[in-house]
């Protein structure tokens, strides 16, 4: 009998120790994003294709945009043509609507502009077929998020971009999250050419998904776009030309000598470190966040970008 009690006591002690260890582990603060990224490996980072990287120089600094040709190939190609013709150089940011978008292009292209002074698109197409969605391609990387979505049956990340999917229809599309770059258009679906672009600067306007082409996302320089004065006219257009911000230049990274290009890396969204970032945001716990959210939505996940470390 004594031996049996001893065995029970040892088992109980072991269980209490296990529970104590589990409680201690649960109380342990979740690693921060900085800590997770510090442990990432070089293989978990990718260098954007210089053919898809735009550098937009404003008087206040540089905005870096990565195009998404696997989702909007015709628009990406047309934007490259416009950039190589220096179409955007000297144009302006024409509209900043609070909690919505910052838009840039030819000021003469809005309702009050002088159409006789419109800048020529040169060899670029004036209209393009709408690329609002694309067929799901199993060859493209896909990192699903686990918590569902209001606007689509599935959401996740592909090549660093936030993507929504409808498996039943076999379609996927880029989502209008903060920092995404879309193609402005008139009413007709084919009227967007990439000559006027916008960046989302507010709460994600997902109602725009599948109604406009999304051409890429801003990798660097969002404060330069989101911090601009808001326009007083309807939809955030500026009242006076002097209120607009001039675009000094837009260049394609591929057209800049390799040694002179800013070296930029983007965390792979199919990497273990990105998965750790997702879990940290879903179930992160620390002294401030005592109660984890338990969920994460598509547009709340930021894909990290960094300056590449010089080779030794």
Walk me through this protein's architecture.
With 312 residues, the chain is α+β, with helices and mostly antiparallel strands. Helix content is 20%, strand content 23%. The chain has helices at residues 2-27, 33-38, 73-84, 222-226, 272-283; strands at residues 45-46, 53-58, 61-67, 92-96, 101-105, 134-135, 143-144, 154-158, 161-166, 171-174, 180-183, 197-200, 214-220, 245-246, 249-252, 264-267, 305-307. The strands form 3 sheets. A 9-stranded antiparallel beta sheet has the order 14-4-5-12-11-13-3-2-15. The radius of gyration is 24 Å and the shape is globular. The chain starts with a helix and ends in a 5-residue tail after the last strand. The model is unreliable at 5-25 (pLDDT under 50).
Contiguous uncertain segments of 5+ residues? 5-25
- Classify the helix fraction into a percent range: 10-25%
Largest sheet: 9 strands, antiparallel
The outline comes out as globular
What class would the helix/strand composition place it in?
A: alpha+beta
Strand content: 15-25%
Radius of gyration: 24 Å
Helix segment count? 5
Instruction: Tell me the span between the first and last alpha carbons.
Output: 70 Å
Strand order of the largest sheet: 14-4-5-12-11-13-3-2-15
Oligomeric assembly: single chain
Tell me how many strands there are: 17
- Secondary-structure element pattern, one letter each: HHEEEHEEEEEEEEEEHEEEHE
Mean pLDDT: 91
